[in-house]
Structure formats: structure tokens, C-alpha cells
Amino acid sequence: MQHVSSPKSIVLFSTRLLTLYLLSLLFGIALGLFHPLMSTFMKQQQVNQIWIGINSTVYFLAIALATPLANQLLRLRGIRPVLLLGLWLMGLSSSSFPFTSELFLWHIIRVLMGFGVCFFLIGGQTALNHFSHKTNRVRVSGIYFMALGLGCIIGTNLGLHFYKISPQLAFLIGGIIVLTSFAIVWCYFQEKLTLETSSSTLLLPLLKQLKFPIHCAFGYGMAEATLITLYPVFLLDQNYSVEQMGFTLSIFGLGSLLSTVPVTNLADSLGKIKVLSACIFVSILTSLGLNLIDNYGLILMFSMLAGASIGPVYPICLALIGEQVISKDLSAGIALFTTTYSLGNAAGPILSSLMMEMLGNRFIFSAFIPLYIFLLLQIRTRGKKQLKFK
């Protein structure tokens, strides 16, 4: 079993990093295809939006529940088996979604998909942080998530194109893409790549140490899940076509894609907290705009701005985790980060769907905007020195 050590300096495009970027691209294509099509398929099957929100919440809760297991497998088996297991579970479960109309089976599929996504996220992000250096960690994360964003754009459009032909065909193509990622990991991660980890990491001190990026991850998770799972339903209820819905999601992804690398470069040079504050502030304004406007042209503009402001939050927070924990606690820090991000994912759709059901569709983003405002107040009142980040 091979233990790898972090070199003092790693380029942005080493062989391992390039492989991770490619896997992120393919993973993004799969997520961009599966998430909106699952919500769309359920909506077209006359499923109440509360159940659509619950189905999304089941998926994200599964990610949170799988996190301790993923961290344990990572420590015992290494990165390669965790990535392979995750991709195998995701590919086989997700592609079967349109072959049933039973709500219970949809929930089971979402649980298996959530476990698979969790294993891939923790394995991939632990490797990403390990193979990067503190001098380029935010930029490496930016490229990684730029690839993910590009994949989401491709996946959304690819999925909708084939969905018009056949929903089953669209989901099968998504499964093939995931299994292609499985083949890449099988061929190019020959070593087990077991990282040196601590078996006695105390979560409470770690949670206290990483409180701010953990809060950000939770808020980001709420915002992201609401946008990718319920915003398509919101647009369909506003009498927009499936094609317009897909194009709007693509514009959101394009905004994230175009902003991630330049914004993360700014975070390396100007300071992570300062740039993160700006992203959160702009995302609040754009989310309010998406709540209130009816003009489709303005919806596209605000969708792009929302993607540009929300997209960089995750890689910046992930980099904060990487620079704040020692090497032995890295996988535990990533697992804690993924858990809280997933809990935010779980809370977002169900809270937003409840708000939409009780108060109307215009309140789709009312669940996470107060949390983002709280994060800005936390930065302002405590200051970056007390947050212990640059």
C-alpha cells in the first residue's frame, strides 16, 4: 500500500491533477444531466412539488449519511477504491430512474445515487487538496470546479436533447458517462494512493476550528440544491418550456464556469475572505432578482450573475479547509465539509418547497437568503483576524 507525500510545489497541470480535472468534467456532465431531468420527469408524472423536494432531500441526506463511511473507507482502502465504488453506485442507480413510476423506488434510487456521489466527492476532493499546494490550492480548486461547471452545462443540454427523444435514452447516456469515468479511474489510478490519516480526529474541535467555512458550505449547499432541483419546477410552473428551462440552467452554469477561475485567482491574491464576502453579497442580490422578475431576458441575465457569484463559493471554502487542517486530518476535514454541504443540500429543497407551497412560488429562495445575510454579518462583526483566515 503506497503512501504519498505532498511535495513542496505542485504545478497546476500535473498528470494526477489533469486526471482529476477530466473526472470532474465527466462528473459534472452526469450531474447536469440527472438532476434537472429527475425533477422534470417527476413533474411530468404529475408528482406534487412537495414530493419532488422530498426526493431531492433524500438524495442529499444520503450524501450526509454516507460521509462517515466514505471517510473510513478512504482511510482504510485509499482513494482509488472509494472513487470506483462511488462511480459504480451512481452510474447504475441514476440511469434506472425513468424505468419506474413508483415514488418509493425513486427514493431508493436517490439514496444509492447519494452514496455514490458522496464517495466520489470525498475521494476526489481529498486527492485534489493533497496533490495541490497552499500557494496554488484555490487555483487548482477553481480549475477543478470550472471543469465541473462546464460539465453541468454540457450535461444539461445533452440530457434535454435526448430527453425529447426518450427519457430512458437520456438517463442511459448519463449512466454511460459515469461508467466511462469508472474506466478512467480503473486505468489511471493504479496505485491505491492511501493517504496518511489520523484515526483519532475529534470532530468537535475540528468543527470549531472550521466553523466559518462549514457555515459557508451549508449555505452554498442550500442555494445550489434549490437552484438545480426546484428552479426548473418554478420555471415550468411559470409556463416556460422545457427548452427554456434547460437554457436558463445552462446560462447559470455558464456564469459559474466563466467566473470560477478568475475569481479564485483573485482570492489567492486579494484574500479569500474578502472575495468570498463579495460573492455572497452579489448572490443575495441576484437571488432576490430571480424571485421578483418576470421578463425572460432578465431571468437569463440574473441567472448568469447568480452562477458567477455562487459558483466560486465552494472552491474557496474547500481551499480554506485545506489550509487550516494538518495533513493527517485532511480527509476528516473534507468529510466534515461534505457532510455540512450535503445537509445544506438536503435542507434547501424541502424548506424552499414548503415555502413555495405555503406562500407561493415567489418565495423559492427565501430559505437560504437569510443564511447568506448572516454569513456577511459574521464576517463584518468578527473580522477576518478572528476568523483566522486570509
Secondary-structure blueprint:
Elements: H1 15-44, H2 49-77, H3 79-94, H4 103-130, H5 137-165, H6 167-188, H7 203-209, H8 211-237, H9 242-270, H10 272-292, H11 296-310, H12 313-324, H13 330-359, H14 369-387
Helix pairs in contact: 1-5, 1-6, 1-8, 2-3, 2-4, 2-8, 2-13, 3-4, 3-6, 4-13, 5-6, 5-9, 5-12, 8-9, 8-12, 8-13, 8-14, 9-10, 9-11, 10-11, 10-12, 10-14
Quick take:
By secondary structure, this protein is mainly α.
Which descriptors apply to this entry?
globular; 390 residues; Growth Hormone, Chain: A; 81% helix; 0% strand; disordered N terminus; 14 helices
CATH homologous superfamily of the largest domain?
MFS general substrate transporter like domains
What does the average pLDDT come to? 80
At the fold tier of CATH, the topology name of the largest domain is Growth Hormone, Chain: A
Q: For the CA atoms, what is the radius of gyration?
A: 19 Å
Cα distance, first to last residue? 36 Å
CATH architecture of the largest domain: Up-down Bundle
Total number of helices: 14
Instruction: Report the count of strand segments.
Output: 0
State the major sheet. none
Class of secondary structure makeup: mainly alpha
> Globular, elongated, flat, extended or rod-shaped: what is the shape?
globular
Helical amount:
over 70%
What is the string of SSEs from the N terminus onward?
Answer: HHHHHHHHHHHHHH
**Portion in beta strands:** under 5%
> Ranges with pLDDT <50 over ≥5 residues?
1-10
CATH class of the largest domain: Mainly Alpha
Number of domains: 2
